Amino acid sequence: MAALMLRSIDTLLDWVQPDFSAATAVIVPSVHAKTLQRAAEIVGGEQQLALRLKVTPSHLALWIQGIEQPPGDIFLQAVDLVVDNDVLSKLPASSRQPAEGGD
């Protein structure tokens, strides 16, 4: 009976003691976080990107840190910023023109 009681106590302790191994693991940024970070670099920072995407800076920070995922439409706007910038950077300077009807 004593052995059964000790086993039950050990099981209970395993259940109530937090496991910090997941919290201390290295977090790999998601494609969402990487894309938003790159978009922020392109437009001049997180504040400017938040204004451009019409979101709060606090929401943007959560998404860049990978704590939450951004809504799909916000992510696609960031993808457009990154892709447009990368395409423009590969064109010769003489053929670069700003997009019509820009934001």
Describe this structure in words.
The chain is mainly alpha-helical. The chain has a domain at 29-95: Orthogonal Bundle (434 Repressor (Amino-terminal Domain)). Helices cover 61% and strands 0% of the residues. The protein has 5 helices and no strands. It is elongated. Residues 4-13 have low confidence and may be disordered.
| Sequence of secondary-structure elements | HHHHH
Mean pLDDT: 77
The total of beta strands comes to 0
Shape: elongated
Number of contiguous helices: 5
Structural class: mainly alpha
CATH architecture of the domain at 29-95: Orthogonal Bundle
Distance between the termini: 74 Å
CATH class of the domain at 29-95: Mainly Alpha
Proportion of residues in helical segments: 55-70%
Query: Main β-sheet: number of strands, strand sense, barrel status?
Result: none
Range of strand content: under 5%
Radius of gyration of CA atoms, rounded to a whole number: 23 Å
Spans of at least 5 consecutive residues whose pLDDT stays below 50 are: 4-13
Features:
103 residues, mainly alpha, 434 Repressor (Amino-terminal Domain), 5 helices, elongated
In short:
With 103 residues, the chain is mainly α.
Describe the secondary structure blueprint for this structure.
Blueprint lengths: L1 H15 L14 H13 L2 H8 L3 H8 L7 H19 L13
Helix pairs in contact: 2-3, 2-5
